[in-house]
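Margin note from the TA: students keep mixing up input and output lines. Inputs are the sequences; the output is the structure of the whole complex. Example:
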Amino acid sequence: MSSSLEGNRSILVVGGGMSGLSAALEAAEAGFQVYLVEREPYLGGRVARMNRYFPKLCPPSCGLEINFRRIRNNPLIRTFTLAQVEKIIGEAGNFDVTIRMMPRYVNERCTGCGACEAAAVTKVPDPFNYGLSSVMAAHLPHEFAFPMRYVLAPEILGTEEAEKIKASCPYGAIELDMQPRLFDLKVGAVIWATGWQPYAAEKINYYGFGKHRNVITNVLMERLASPGGPTGGRILRPFDGKGVHHIAFVQCAGSRDENHLPYCSGICCLASLKQATYLLEQEPEARATIFYIDIRALGKYEDFYVKVQSDERVRLVKGKVGEITEDPESGVVTLQVEDQGSGRILKEPFDLVVLATGMVPSTAVDAIPSDPRVALDAMGFVLSEGGIPGIYGAGCVTAPMDVASCVQEATAAALRAIQATRRG
Amino acid sequence: MDPKNISLEMRDYIWEMGAETLNWCMQCGLCTNLCPWRLVPGETSESFNIRHMQRLGQMGMEGFEDEKSLFACTTCGTCQVNCPRGVKIIDNVRAMRASIVGAGMAPGSLRPILGSAHANGNPWSGPREKRTEWQSGLDVPQFGPDREYFLFVCCHSCYDPRSTKIAKSIVRLLTAAQVSFGVIGVEESCCGESMRKIGDEELFQKLAESNIGLFNGRGVTKIITTSPHCTWSFKNEYPAMGGEWEVFHYTEILDRAVQQGKLSFSRETGKRVAFHDPCYLGRHGGLYEPPRNLLKSLPGCHAVELNRTREMSLCCAGGGGRIWGEVPMGERFGELRIEDACARGAEILATACPYCVNMLTDACTSLGRQDALEIAELSEVLSRTLS
């Protein structure tokens, strides 16, 4: 046990979304050295791509901004973007972690002036907007990106354009020969907060996502409604850019379904209620219909549900939507569903359909590279018991949850990590 | 609203007949909305709601026995493979039908069918001794210890004049592919798949026992079937009763023969061919590639995919005993299939099931499209191009 007393007291936080940011700050502000590793070129995770939070309908940018300032002001936090954990060996109090950093092709001399973007001509799909729009091959990941540093798309490497982009930078910040880099970190504990991924809606073949252009998912709806999104915040049909007068939300799109995700993600009902307000605020004459099995708005969220429900432009219909078809000429999407209230089978046309897809834990896709492996449940969520001492899940890798719960969970994980560095 | 009578005995009886997952249903209604009956207008479409029917079954409530609803399901399986709770909806339908048919109350239109299967071992009112008549003019080998596969020809292709062409083409193809096979003949009985789906459990047991005794007695270990309904029944229903063989649909055997270079097609097809996935081959059997591989191996064949294809294939409406149902024009699923195939410029609509051929041919004729679109069994398209 003596070794644990000499154990490393620093903490590795994997994932720079709301859970990872919170855990990193809680641990650092308690006086512990923290390394924060994020795969994307920016911090903020899924939350950065949200338009607004429920139930207050405030934008996530202010909360993120506060967290970024706390990080900037805290010398105990070191962040690594475009970085992934490759291997974890050792034990609580003494982990040896291998990190792989992917090349950004832009070094820390970048001031965010945008000269490189002006020199670029090639456009690539914008991952921040889930490919709904495109960006220049030299771009800022998003408007309020932290760190505020440009990134180059690897597609243009070796071209004349890349050289022009390099020449355009007055600060010598473009490094076209940057290579992936491996390095080691010694830490006492690990917090795994890699978050979630939206369920792949194209797997629900009867809804035609990916085939019908006016069928989108709830994460895409956040981008469509966001001022920084592909339409500048106007909710328009992807089919023809026309306005949306009647929108449908399909709840449990793949959730509570043995063929897809057998569990309830607990946030999709609230997300759809929230997203209905996005449209109604922009288009006062518009209408929204939410098709559901059960509306799940637990605890304090009941009030938000009741508030949206009382808007006469919002209609809630109990019934699981069957097939969705799209008219190839007009782009009108027709939903077929049995209204369980009346027993009538409805076939209704809509301008836009939003599939309320659930959360898949990132650990179901990319496992924690530790030896032995961290225990996961059948769905890929990190189990709180029976794991490896010193490695803790936080946020949506442990269960589907909303942002507020993620922050709480992250705080708890920070405490457990601190304890692990002390006790070994 | 009138009070409804709940019968606990009925509920238990349905459960015993095989509706073991009936109470897993949470009444979401996905089944009703993926049901192919929603794609056509008419009285059956309006009265048949599979969710509602199962609800009545759950409660043992009267009303489900209405013929229009109870015998409407084609057992296509679209609802079942997508059910969020994994409810075995077809077993539930079968069990509910069994509660009526088992009590001697089969619909009038189905009684001659069941009677013929009882008396002749086939539902097509064909005398047992004429089961092998389709073989005239062909040298079809007898199954024996020297033969690797037993070829089981579906009753439909033994007796229906149009359908016998399928049996003949399959024999020609298997011979060309040098497959070692043989038939048994008049002692064979209907596999009973559709009889069981209609709800005649006793008849199914009788047919299956007869076949199992016969096949095992002759030393059968591997079976080639001509119809995916027989394939499915032999694979999924017979093992529990002592019939355990390796079972293949003929398209699997031919696909393998082509890949091994034992079978090739030399004559140009030069046609646009759409393939209709039979429910029992695709959704129930998981076989989507063998028929497509075979079409691809035809010289000059332009394969066309239909709108609803593979897992989402639209049923021909011939399963679950519906091949014996009367459906007015304008309400037949097959008509949608014909329209789709024509819209895609197909000249041949090929399938790999005798029931589908039957249903699609009827639909094509009722739409008057027989000059523009040929309905063919895949084996017929293939055997034409043998040199």
